[in-house]
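Feature request disguised as a bug report, sorry. It would help if multi-protein outputs had a clear separator. Right now it looks like this:
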Amino acid sequence: MTTKPFGLYCPTSKACEVLLPRWTIQILGELWGGSTRFNEIKRGLPGISPTLLARRLKEMQENGLLQRIEDAATGNIDYIRTEKAAELDDILKGLASWAQRHITAEIALEDRDADLLMWNIRRQIDVDALPPRRTVMRFNFSDATSPASTYWVITRPGETVELCASDPGFDVDLYVETQVRVFTGAYLGRRSFERDVEDGHIFLSGDRRLVQTFRRWLTFSMHSGVDDIARVDHDAVSA
C-alpha cells in the first residue's frame, strides 16, 4: 500500500485505504468490463500513464484484487479479477446507480472523448443479432475532442468486434452521424435515444435491417436502466 493510512479503526476507512489510490476503482471497472491485457486496460483509461498503470496493477495484485497470469508459450500476460475483487461488484453497481440519480446530466456528459466512447460501444455489440456476414459500421462525431472523430466497427460471425480509427477499405453497411455528448447520453440512459433519432440528433442510414434493429444488436450501458436517472431535458437543452 503506497497511500498514507487514515489512522482510523473504521472498516470503511480501511477499505478506502485499499480502494482509493487513484485509478484503482477504474481499473477494477475495466477488468469487470472484460479487459485483461495491459494495453486493453490502458485503452479504456486514457488518462493514466503506463508507469502508473503498471504500479497500480502490481499493488492490486499484492492486495489480492487480481491475478497476473502469464502464458509461458506466448509470453502474453492477463490480469484477472479475484473472488475478493468480485465481491465489490454490488458496491460498484450501487455507486454507479447513485451517480446516475444524483449527478446532473450536464456534469455527467461534459467529456467528449469519442475514442473512449467507441471503446465501450464495441463491447456492447451482440454479433449473434447481426446478419451472418461481415458488417461494417461507420460512426462520425461532429463534436469529438479526441484525435479521431470517425470510427469504423467491423463484425464477423464468431470473431471479436474490431474497432478502427482509419478507413479499413470495406463498403460501409451502416452510417451513424451524431455528437459524442448526444450518443454518450443515450448510451448512459441520460437522453432518450428514440427522441434523439426523431429530432435528427442521431442520424442512422444504410442497410435498413441494421437501422431498424439498431437497439437489438447494440445494447446500452448496464447502468442505463437505473430508476430515476437525472436525465437531459430535451425541451430545454438543444443538441
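(second protein starts here, but nothing in the output says so)
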Amino acid sequence: MNSPRNHPSLPPAPSERPMRQGSPRRRVVRTETGQLQTGALMIIAFAVVLFLLVQARFLLVTLATAIVLFSLTSDAINFIARQRIGPFRIPNWLASITALMAISLALLVLTSVILSQVNTVLTTALAYTERAPEAIASLFAWLGADAEQAVYNSIASIRVSAWLSTLAGQAGGLMQATVLVILFVGFLFAERIWFRTKMDAFFGSEAQAARVGQVISTIIHRVNYYLLVKTFISAITGLLVFVIAKLFGLDLAVALGIVTFVLNYIPNIGSIIATVMVALVAFVQLGGPGMTAAIFLLIGVIQFVAGSVIDPMLMGRALRLSSFGIIISLAFWGAVWGIPGMFLSVPIMVGLMIVCSQVPSLRPIAILLSREGLPDPEAQALGEDSIAAE
C-alpha cells in the first residue's frame, strides 16, 4: 500500500517542491540597488579624478601643452624627413632634433617677450593706480555725486599692489613651465619612432592598432588646423590692435597687442576681455569718453569681423563643435586649471568628441558635443570599415 506521501494525486512536500526564482519585486530591488551602487562608484571616481586634476595641475598643464606642440609639429617632422638633399634623404632623428630646436627657440623667445611685457604692464599699472579710481568713478557721475563717491571708495579700497604682486609671482613660474614643456616635447620626439610598434604590441592586432592610429591622426590634424587658423587670426587681430593703440598714443600699445593675440585663443570670451581691457586702458590714460568710445568701437569691429566672419569662414566644418559645449568645456577646464585650462579647453574637447564617436556606448556624448549631431562621420566610416575588415 502506498503511503500518503508517495500518492501521485497529492502535492509534493514543501522540501520536495522545486526552488522558485526570486519574485519580480526582488529582482527590481536588486536592479535598483545595482544601479545605485554603479552611480555612487561613478561619482566617487569622478571626484577622485577631479581631485587629481587639481592637485597635479602644473604637471598636467605642461604635459598637455607639450602634447599639443608635439602634435602640431609631427606633420612638419614627417615633411622634413621626406626631403632629399641630392641622393641623401634627411634622417628622422635629424628632423626631430631640428623641430625640437625650433620649438625650444620659439617658446623661449615668446616667454621672454611675455615676461618683459608683464613687467612693463605692472610698472605702468602701478603708475595708473592713483588715477584709475577717479577715472572709473566718473563713469557713474550721471547717477549722482553719492553714487560716484561710493564707486570711488569701492575701487580705492581694492589692494591693487597686492594683486599685481600675485600676478608677477605667477608670471615668474612661466619660464619654469616653458623648460618643462621643452623637456616633455623632447621625450615625445624620442618615443615617436617606436610608437607604431608599441601600438601593435599593445593591442595585439594590426587592424585594431591601425584604427586607434587613425583616431589619433584625426585628432592631431583637427587640432593642428584649429591652432593654425587661430594663430593666423589672432596675429592679425593683435597687429591691428597694436596699430590702433599706437595711433591714439597709448603707452601700452605693444602689451595690448600681445595680450589681444594671447586672449584670442580663449574661445568666445577672450576677445571680449581683450576689447574691454583696451578700452579701460584708453579711458584711464586719455580720460575723454569720446576717444575711449572711438577706440572701443574700432576694436569691437575688428574683433567682430575676425571672430564672426573670418574665423567661421576659415574653420568651416573642421571642428564641428557645439557652441554650448565649448562654453561648458571652457568653464570646466577654467575652474580646474585656471587660465591655461581655458586655452586647452577646445583641443581637449576635440579629442574627447572624436574618441567618444568611436566608442558605441559613448557616441551619445559625441553627438551632444557636436554642432549638428555629426561628431566625426569620416572617422566613424573608417572605424566601421576597420571592424568589417576584421
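Even a blank line would do. Unrelated, but nice: Residues 206-247 form the longest helix (42 residues).
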